[in-house]
Amino acid sequence: MSSEVRGPAAVPPPLIYVAALLVALVLDELWPIRLLPTWWAYLIGTLLVVASSLIIPFVLVRFRRAGTPLNVRKPTTALVTDGPYRFSRNPAYVALTLLYLGVGLLLNNVWALLLVIPALLVLDLWIVRREERHLEERFGELTPAFERQVAERVGASGRCGRFSTAPGLSMCH
């Protein structure tokens, strides 16, 4: 067994969304259902993809400046609390969720929109909870204090991490 220090998760979060999208594509082949007129789906989908692409650079810059890896399979070396992290504990997952929903709408695939719920649950169970434990182990009391600070900024109360109903979209994540 290796003594190498590893990060909190074994699965890269984008793979959860890719898997959900592949299932949605198969379901759409079997039972195609259109939610919106094509032009509405394109418009809303494009806006979501653009919103996602506006968040990601800020996340990448913050991680680079902190000298900590974005890769969830590598150990965190710093707790990032500025930039988009002032408003969300997991802005990268918010961006991934917006991208997934945008692609689902661009494809006008109802199944993709429905499968975002299981994707968020898997993200919460496999990634977010492990990351939170990992951060608490590495940074101790800093992590709950940061969680409370984000919750206060967005008008939530208490520790909302493990009790959120939609972790990828929650302002607390």
Please provide a written account of the structure:
The protein has about 170 residues and is mainly α. The protein has one domain (about 15-165). Helices cover about 60% and strands about 0% of the residues. It has helices at about 15-30, 40-65, 90-105, 110-140, 140-155. About 35% of the residues are buried.
Topology, please?
Layout: H1 13-30, H2 38-66, H3 91-106, H4 110-139, H5 142-153
Helix pairs in contact: 1-3, 1-4, 2-3, 3-4
Q: Tell me about the biggest sheet?
A: none
Low-confidence stretches: 1-5, 152-173
Based on CA atoms alone, the radius of gyration comes out at: 17 Å
Assembly state of the chains shown? single chain
Q: What's the number of structural domains?
A: 1
- Count of DSSP E strands? 0
Helix content: 55-70%
First-to-last CA distance: 33 Å
Shape: elongated
In DSSP terms (H or I, runs of 4 or more residues), the helix count works out at: 5
What string gives the helices and strands in order?
Answer: HHHHH
Determine the mean pLDDT: 79
Which band does the percent of strand residues land in? under 5%
Structural class by helix and strand composition: mainly alpha
